[in-house]
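User: Show me a protein chain along with its predicted structure.
Assistant: Here is one chain, sequence first, then structure tokens.
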Amino acid sequence: MNCDKAEEAEFAEAEWDEARAGDAVTESRRTQEAAAARAGTASLERTASAAQKSNAENVKAAVAQNGMALEWALAELQNSAEIVRIAVAQDGNALKFASAELQSSAENVRIAVAQYGPALEYASAALRQDPVL
């Protein structure tokens, strides 16, 4: 009977170790995702030249990784419907960096709010009152 208890204890310990390993893998993925998100912002914020910040393809790539990179794009690109849609789909909070015109776009606001509900705060006053949103 001692064998059974010893085997049970060994099995329980193996399960516990397996669960800890799974937690470590999950934490590692979260760390990698956070680093990638920071890199997307940094790619526009610190390292990009004015020419890169004005290049739509560079900005699309950056906001696809981290929607908040929209903050560092030139105003002209913050007024690009396509770029703003990419940004708010990745991070609804990016709506705050969209032009006022695009903050008044029901489509952009719907996408942003679906991704991050509190993004409604950055919608135009008229859209904040819309009961559908």
